[in-house]
Hints:
This protein has 5 helices and 9 strands; from the N terminus they run αββββααβββαββα.
Amino acid sequence: xxxxxxxxxxxxxxxxxxxxxxxxxxxxxxxxxxxxxxxxxxxxxxxxxxxxxxxxxxxxxxxxxxxxxxxxxxxxxxxxxxxxxxxxxxxxxxxxxxxxxxxxxxxxxxxxxxxxxxxxxxxxxxxxxxxxxxxxxxxxxxxxxxxxxxxxxxxxxxxxxxxxxxxxxxxxxxxxx
Length: 177
């Protein structure tokens, strides 16, 4: 077995890509945490480490804000069926195994994330294509990342990955008036 360390700027995504290139049976990701937990242990004192989790569950947890692994690394691992083991550099505790093994009807994690939700309300809002395009352009121009988009006849709600400052709200509002 050959072991290598990625220097500054190396990432879990790079590690998985290298594991794929080397046709590895597993990819171990060592970091400052010893696995994936049911919640952020810095917030929830009795959070439990998860022993096994599926690729899909891990991608969802990563996308929702858990910082253990980047969701792109898990997408690559899933595509090439390489199990990923997340564990700590600082202890020998067993980490979390991420693979396609399915254990149905189990709750895995709760994620709290500071996000912004902006709702724009008005009858027939979705038929006002000029307005919708203006909002889309504001999102693009400000490099905003959307987590979720909810649309109904009367409302467009956008949940952004990061906290949105009041300047963005003002820009959105300027397209209404």
